[in-house]
Amino acid sequence: MTNSSPRDSRSFRDSHGRPLVAVTGLGIVTSLGQGQADNWAALTAGRSGIHSIARFSTDGLRTRIAGTVDFLDTDPLVAPALSQRFAEEAAEEAITQSGIGAKGDFPGALFIAVPPVEMEWPQRQSLAQASGQNGDITYSDLQRAASSGRFDAWHDLFIFATVADNIADRFGTKGSPISLSTACSSGATAIQLGVEAIRRGEMQAALCIGTDGSVNPESLIRFSLLSALSTQNDPPEGASKPFSKNRDGFVMGEGAAALVLENAESARARGATILGYVLGCGEKGDGFHRTRSSPDGAPGIAAIRAALDDAGTEPDSIDTINAHGTSTPENDKMEALGCAAVFGERIRTLPISSNKSMIGHTLTAAGAIEAVISLLTIAHGRIPPTINYAVPDPALSLDVVTTARDARVSRVLSNSFGFGGQNTCLVLGDEPV
Asked: What is the pTM assigned to this prediction?
């Protein structure tokens, strides 16, 4: 963390002459706990938040584990309600730390990554029962049931922008809130949009959030049908094993993270403590396949290089990589190959770690959660481990951090590679380039 005064106005500009974007507030909720302190203590201790699912029956399911957040009181089977609650908690912590936007008057826009919203099985079943049909149910039957007025509360609940609207109302953000969903890179994309808005001079501050409460039976079945989930249910905490030879899929997680971004000059002028900077953002779309990565790894490589170029820095300046590291056979391989293409032989000695080994894959929240953890890594000078790395994959020549490692960390590359080829990478640092 830094609160020293810049010597002249050039210090408020990045290497491309744009307004420098500072981070002044952080908030986080995961299966490890609520808030920065609880999450950081658990992460650096190598403690897993993945456990057997208790909120619904998993009988007949191939995957029966997840990193669920079970300590907040809300409807556990309605993803929008969970996502909103997680976002509220994370935003409250971030705004309080930043000292800006108190009392529901945040002086900037909201950019929030949320999961795709659609009616879930319990609600569909209720609607079908209300149609009054005992045999085949038509779409017209469902429309008549929906128009009865009995389900008006669902109308707002299952509209894509509802979570954003509610968060904007609670914290008083300005302008129309932006909801986005770019698969597993969504949280990083929300941060990128906030950065770009501040750089363009459209606002002095932005509230950027990634949130996801999608652990439900339907999601587990859908991902299982894609052969994406680990089926190593026992013990639950051992299932997520990024970069290991015996990895067999990711484990679903949930939670949220929020970052308060500010124009560095205005943040300094109000006496804010700057926690770090978002120095670079890189993105690259890949139309190769709905779930698989391009075999040559070109889009992921391009996203990493774009983030470095945007930050005005070279690969040698990166001190550690917060990996996307999902624990799926293909993703880990492609990420390792992509990093090797950018960092060359140095990838063998460049520390790399995956938070998903402990919290699971938090989907649309992952990019934001991992950005917060990256900034905590910089602040504390300690790299959290990748747990369960007992059987290294000999095909991946990486310096995987297996126990928390003390290190001088000035810049972190945080990778987010999503289904559908949506790749977003961030460079976070403690000082301007």
From this structure: 0.91
